[in-house]
Sequence to fold (235 residues):
Amino acid sequence: MEFSIVIPLFNEKESLPRLQKKLYKTMESISCDYEIIYIDDGSTDSSLTVLQGLKRSCSKMRIISLKKNTRKSAALLVGFKASIGKWIITIDADGQDPPEEIVKLLKFKDDFDFIMGIRKKRKDNFLRKVSSQIAKFFRWLVLKDITKDAGCSLRVFKREAIGALPLFRNFHRFLPFLVRAEEFSVKEVEIEHNQRKFGKSKYGVLERAWEGIFDLWGVFWLKKRWLNYEIKYKC
Fold:
């Protein structure tokens, strides 16, 4: 299996049919061996029922439904463990990152271990965009993290790039930094960004800000205790 597409979701029943249609069309155009894994993170709407209906017309699709909402990082981890592809692709279920943009990222897979999007002309409200820029500044200040758009969920990476990483609550926000710390190569590529058509974001700005502060200092602690070594000689 070449590609595993992992999609965490929570209450996205309206977005799923459109996402699946575009995703299937994109991956079929690439002519590769792939699987699509939807992680229903304890949805309280009819997302699971919608997924079950979509699966009847797509043999490459798999569904994992969690008993309760565990948040995005945990849902991603479930998907990573269930996947079998050499490469993992992540994308949100809300449709804001167009599945067609996966092709742009795949152009760089022969030269980089981890490829991720930069949302060009981001279609989010002013407060969300400003809070992201503030978070970006503090990640650079505390961690010297050079990631331009850590909030972009469209990513393509080798399985081994995350194999030895310490995975914790909200690790997805720091994944590019952690991958770089393990000396894997990272490439950021500009992608289009859509306005959300259905529903609303599951996380408020204040909630993200408070969690981001605690997570940032947790990763700073981790960075200070990272085991670093250089091999002088071996035979």
Summary: The chain has a mean pLDDT of 90. The chain has one domain: 3-224. Helices lie at 16-30, 47-55, 72-82, 102-106, 126-143, 160-163, 175-181, 205-224.
